[in-house]
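Let's do one together. I've listed all components of the complex below, 801 residues spread over two lines.
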Amino acid sequence: MLPTLGNIALFLSLIFAVSQFYYTRKKNKIKIISISVKGLLISSLFSFFILIYLHIISDFSVLNVFQNSHTTKPLFYKITAVWGNHEGSMLLWIIVLTIFNYFIFKLYNKKNYIFVSKTLEIQAFITIGFIIFTILTSNPFDRIIPAQENGLGFNPILQDPALAIHPPLLYIGYVGFSAAFSISVACLALKNGKNFPWYKYMKPFVMIAWTFLTIGIALGSLWAYYELGWGGWWFWDPVENASFMPWLIGTALLHSLIIVEKRQSLQAWVLLLSLLAFLLSVVGTFLVRSGILTSVHTFALDPSRGIYILAFTAILGSYSLILFGVNSKKYFNNNYFTFFSKEGAILVNNIFMIIVCSTVFLGTIYPLLIEAMTNNKISVGEPYYNSTVIPILIPAIIIMGVGPILSWGKENTSNIIRKLLPSLLITTSLTILFFSIYKSFSLIGIAGILLAFWIISNNLVMFYKKKFNLSVGMIVAHLGVGFLILGITGSSVWQIEKISNMKINNEININKYKIVFDSINEIKGPNYLALRGNFLVFDKKKNIITTLKPEHRFYPITGSFTSEASIHTNIFRDLYIVLGEGNLNEGWTIRMYYNPLVIWIWIGALTIFLGGCISINRNLKKLT
Amino acid sequence: MIKKQLLKIPFIIFIIVLSIFFYLLIIDRNPSKIPSALINNSVPEFETNSLFGDKKFYSSKELKHEITLVNFFATWCKPCRDEHVYIQRFKDEKALNIIGINYKDNPKKTVQWLKKLGNPYSNIAIDSNGRIAIDWGVYGIPETFIVDSKGIIKFRHIGPINKKKYREINLLIEKLR
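Okay, and this is what the predicted structure of the assembly comes out as:
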């Protein structure tokens, strides 16, 4: 029986993980460690593929398949539903853990047996924790007796290509930090940890984790933008925050690692950041899976799961942070820092990242805290984050533009100004050009656009000169951040929203466009029925630019309605339209958004990802 | 040089945060429970069409003479179907007066739905555009209110009624009676 086989594979991977944990504590057991590591990888992959197969063949004797699938669902979403639910996604989490485990194993060479063994021991411990969690509280192979005829279906808003790859990318990010965590603990636990080039081992893992976390968050955001139909792309939802916090720490970590590599300073700081990055990832998992808060991401409410993850986090966190408190002193050094130097800029930015992270953390747990103490519900939303996060990010971004062109060690001030002159000129002229076209002024808008062009021009100048011996990956990634800021500023400062009730042939103006409600018809999708509106979009000269076709879908299996926004995109703006409730006589509620520059958010995220990939490639080559 | 004491700070913060999480997990708390400003206040008045016949529905007439359960529901909402057995039991076992408010729904479908599952409601108000739900501060359907004989809201529950809630509401009704 396949589900039994899947269970056996899962238990096997537990045995391999335990054996890895046990033998990495012994001397000269490389052979048996090798078997454990590979066995763990293969058995967990095997159980994962069995679960995928069970979903493909719609085996409704399996509870997980029954709860999340249906025979009418397209094959693609049958597969992606495997990680669209709690149990399956835990299995994916384990797979990613074991893959990183394998890459740590690959670090073995003649000199570093002790160090890599210690790292693998920690990694095995983490893996054991998650496998036991899965087996005890969330086994995806649990059966349902008697077997059911058909499944309950899969939440229709999750049936989406961006969301299909969002979890795997995000997990590479979260779990990638586990490798940095294990390396850091190994450093702190070993007496002679300092003698190993641990930061060289850590860097590619952090880079992979950070790069994939970035694109994972961006995809989730993209999905929220076109699927939820709220016109926005970031909602400061607790679970968005839970992914944003490790990202912030990861950003600080990534940059500090460069200082460690070049100047041997900040080592203790980097060790702490790598502990925090993974701990925050696990806390994020806890927030999502325990039902402690409600959000679009929360899975089923089950307190026993929460207790388990919390206990596990307590063990990981207490052990590693106590180790840090006791042993990190030996990683201190007294290297002198000047503010006007590359490491000075990175350090200052590090501090800003930590402050932003703490602010977001406070905003996320503050409502819980208040509720626990006073029994009142309060909600912390956009105004809080906008007024706290943005002022901290502005200086951070200014420094980010300058940082890369500063030298290591010391830089004299007149030199800095000479270096910055070209990009200062470009920034000013681009900003003037921008506002002479858009002619819409606001303080935040001007600040955001200035910052965006500041970053973009600095990096373009660097790219053009290419004599600073800088990494191409870094320049590309930073350029991406510039695009990102451009998009964020444009879409949040100049967004126009219009909500109105429209009947056929009614028209409405938004910005310089005229939108005419042409017709509405019923269509039939693979597993849904829908009403689709046709909206003709005219520009100033009365030419038709496009037809927008938003849909109001009904999924009979889950009995739920979804709105499919229709979006027309170009590099200057998005036109975004959502079809709401209504009927022929009374008309339909139509929501329309004019979102300037949104596409630059996605271009930016993709550029950052690309830059990350270039750097990963370069660092992996260095390692081998 | 950094003092050694400072190195313990991350651990201390970690323990504090963990204790908060732990406390939140063990206390009996429902994250979707939202306090209502309406508790111990009069019901919001409204007028709309009744699902049965071509009659009007006046809240002032329906909600002021006996203890009443007000249930926001819709046929497209699966949890509403799940809780329907309990709504029916309130009618059958406790002889409770039950008013339904049919939220953003198709009246024809609702009639069919009730034919199939049984009709515990003494009257049903149609809330086709969700206006009544807004006045009542409804967070999401299903949602249930208990109104006493003077038209004062005494209880509110967000989400489907399950066994535990069924017992809790029964106790409350005994008390009110």
